Amino acid sequence: MAPSPDDEIRFILNARRWIDADVASRLWTRGWAVADLAVGEGEPFEWFWPPTAPVGYGGLPDWGDEAMQRRPQIFGPRQTPWIRPTRITKTGTAWTLEYGEAIAQKPAAPQAYAEDTALIADLERLEWWPMTIEEARKIQRSRLFEVTTAMAHDAHYLGLFPTEPYVGRGKAIRARQLFEHQRARGVADAGSPTARTPGDLNALARLLDAEAWASAVRTARAGGNGWGVSGPDGA
Predict the structure, then answer these.
(1) What 3-state class would DSSP assign to 108?
(2) Which pLDDT value is given to residue 65?
(3) At what angle are helices 23-30 and 5-21 packed, to 10 degrees?
(4) C-alpha distances in angstroms, 183 versus 177, 199, 202?
(5) What residue segments make up the domains of the chain, in order of their start?
(6) In DSSP terms, which residues pair with 90 in a beta bridge?
(7) In this model, does residue 18 exceed pLDDT 60?
(8) Is the sign of the CA dihedral 100, 106, 111, 116 positive or negative?
(9) For residue 183, what is the DSSP state?
(10) What is the rounded CA–CA span in Å between residue 206 and residue 199?
(11) What does the pLDDT look like over 30-82, one tens digit per residue?
């Protein structure tokens, strides 16, 4: 007997609920990375937050953007003040969170989470530490206003070199924008490069830029004197 449309909807909803309740799935979808996929049997994965990772940590490329990877001599070696990233591991049934460390940022004390739901509920705060969520959002709002105002007047605004997960998210948005543009001209292939995200793609790109900017501000602060959003002695 073939499944009914209601059965298919229930399956999708149940799968979504499972993903939302599974720590590893939530970490992956939010942009956390695994330091070493080839760990020994019984050894826990180490998940880390890429914006707080030292250069090359966990096998990440020095530069996130593919064009920059092909021409590293133009940009030089990427530098970051981060010494150790914010990372999460699981031992038995409990999760352990270890905060990152940078030149001018000491780590906070590690935290233990006995319940998956408690860790999932705390992920956004962990991703913005040592900023608060509200401070990060304030910086994003300021960046949005600055960029929108500059674009409205055809003026310049300061750019930045984003890290993952912002590079990957931006690539997906640009691929979708290209597809939409080609489809409007009648030259797009039948298949879409990415699933259609509800909303305006240009607005999503600006929100992503603001999020990456707030992350870069956090890193600049972690570097202390002489560090800016573009690196050492950056603006």
Answers:
(1) coil
(2) 67
(3) 90
(4) 10, 17, 17
(5) 5-130, 134-232
(6) 95
(7) no
(8) negative
(9) H
(10) 12
(11) 999 999 877 766 778 999 999 999 999 998 877 766 666 666 666 677 889 99
- The Cα 202–Cα 206 span in angstroms is 6
Give backbone dihedrals phi and psi of 190, rounded to 5 degrees, phi first.
-65, -35
pLDDT in tens, 175-199: 888 888 777 777 766 566 666 666 8
Q: What is the mean pLDDT of the chain?
A: 85
Rounded to whole angstroms, how far apart are CA atoms 134 and 191?
Answer: 39
> Pairing relation of β-strands 82-84 and 101-102?
antiparallel
pLDDT at 167: 93
* Tokens describing residue 51: 């914006």
Sorted by sequence, the CB contacts under 8 Å of residue 156 that are 6+ apart come out as 150
Q: Judge residue 186's burial from the number of C-beta atoms within 10 Å of its C-beta, 0-12 exposed, 13-18 middle, 19 or more buried.
A: exposed
For 113, the token pair is 């989470």
Read off φ and ψ for residue 62, nearest 5 degrees.
Answer: -55, -50
State which amino acid sits at residue 212: A
